[in-house]
Design brief:
Layout lengths: L2 E4 L3 E4 L7 H53 L41 H13 L3 H26 L3 E2 L2 E2 L6 E3 L9 E8 L2 E9 L5 H7 L8 E2 L2 E2 L1 E6 L2 E8 L3 E7 L4 E8 L4 H8 L4 H7 L4
Antiparallel strand pairs: 1-2, 3-4, 5-6, 6-7, 7-13, 8-9, 10-11, 11-12, 12-13
Length: 294
C-alpha cells in the first residue's frame, strides 16, 4: 500500500509494484499537490513583493510632492540650497507673484475744495442750464466750508490737557460728503500712559446702547457685578452719558446735532471726577455755534 510520510519534506513512500496503474495514479495526485503548494507559495511571495513595492512607491511619491511644494514656495531644497530654477525668487520686497511691496511714497496732497472757485462754477453752470454740474459744484463749495469749520473747531480745543500735550500729527478733519455727512473731527492728547482722545463723529457709530440712554430707555440701569457701567450726566447744561470699562477706561458722549456727537475717550484716568474735569475744559457751546446748533 502507498503512504505519505511527513518530515522536513513531503515524501511519497512506494509499497506497490513499480509501474502499476495504482502507483501511476498516486504519483499523479502527489505531483498535483506539489504543484498546488508551489503556486500558493508563488502567489504569497508576489503579494508580499507587491505590497512592499506599493509602500516604496507611496513614500517616493510623497518625497516628490514635498520637493515640488518647496520649489514652488521658494523654500530650500533638502540639500539646504534655495531653488530658483523655473520659479520667481522669494524676496522681502515681493510676494509669490513677484509683485513688489510698496515701501515709499509721500501720499496725497491735502486739497480741500476751493469754495470760491466752486461757487463761481456753480453760478456759471446754472446760467447755462447745466443744473447737474451746478449742483455738484455747489455741493463741493459747501463741503469746503464744512471742512473749514472743522479746522476752526480744532483750533478752539485746548493745546494741552491736564499736563498732556496734543499730538499735532493726529489732528484730523474729514467728511464723507457735504451736509455734515460722515464728518469726523479728531484730536488726541498723551503723556506717558495717560491718554485722551476727543472727536466729533456720526452718532450712529456709537451703537444702539448709547441711543437708548439718550432716548431715556435705559436710565442708569446698566449694571455688571453690582457696578454701574453707564449713567446719564449733564455736561455744562448738555445731556450726556458716561461709561467705564476696566480695559478701555472712561467714555463720555454729548449730543451736538441730530446726527453727531462729541466723544471723549480717557485712558488711565484715576477717577470719574478727574475725567469730568478734563471734559469740562472744552467749550461745548462754542463748538455748537460752529455747527449752527446754538
Amino acid at each position: 500500500m502507498p503512504c505519505l510520510s511527513l518530515g522536513k519534506e513531503l515524501t511519497y513512500v512506494d509499497s506497490t509494484p513499480y509501474g502499476s496503474p495504482i502507483q501511476a495514479k498516486l504519483n499523479k495526485k502527489y505531483n498535483m499537490k506539489k504543484y498546488l503548494m508551489y503556486m500558493l507559495c508563488t502567489v504569497a511571495c508576489s503579494t508580499l513583493v507587491f505590497h512592499t513595492n506599493a509602500q516604496v512607491l507611496r513614500k517616493f511619491k510623497e518625497k516628490v510632492n514635498q520637493a515640488a511644494d518647496k520649489a514652488l514656495s521658494g523654500k530650500t531644497t533638502p540639500a539646504g540650497q534655495t531653488t530658483t530654477e523655473g520659479t520667481t525668487p522669494s524676496t522681502e520686497s515681493s510676494g509669490r507673484t513677484g509683485k513688489p511691496v510698496n515701501k515709499t511714497g509721500a501720499g496725497l496732497v491735502s486739497t480741500p475744495p476751493d469754495v470760491e472757485a466752486n461757487m463761481t462754477s456753480s453760478e456759471t453752470s446754472f446760467k447755462s442750464n447745466k443744473y447737474s454740474e451746478s449742483r455738484y459744484a455747489l455741493q463741493q463749495a459747501i463741503l469746503g466750508v464744512e471742512l473749514k469749520i472743522g479746522q476752526e473747531i480744532l483750533k478752539s480745543m485746548p493745546e494741552e490737557l491736564q499736563g498732556m500735550p496734543k499730538i499735532p500729527e493726529n489732528d484730523k478733519v474729514a467728511s464723507g460728503g457735504w451736509g455734515w455727512t460722515g464728518l469726523t473731527i479728531n484730536r488726541e492728547y498723551q503723556k506717558g500712559d495717560k491718554f485722551m482722545g476727543v472727536s466729533i463723529q456720526d452718532f450712529s457709530y456709537l451703537g444702539p446702547a448709547w441711543a437708548m440712554y439718550f432716548n431715556g430707555g435705559m436710565m442708569n440701569t446698566q449694571m455688571e457685578n453690582n457696578e454701574q457701567k453707564m449713567k446719564n450726566i449733564m455736561v455744562k447744561g448738555n445731556k450726556g452719558v458716561i461709561s467705564f470699562d476696566a480695559s478701555k477706561g472712561y467714555t463720555v458722549v454729548v449730543m451736538l446735532t441730530q446726527g453727531s456727537a462729541l466723544v471723549w475717550d480717557g485712558v488711565n484716568f484715576a477717577s470719574e471726577q478727574e475725567m469730568m474735569d478734563a471734559v469740562n475744559s472744552f467749550d461745548i457751546d462754542k463748538i455748537k455755534n460752529f455747527l449752527g446748533e446754538k
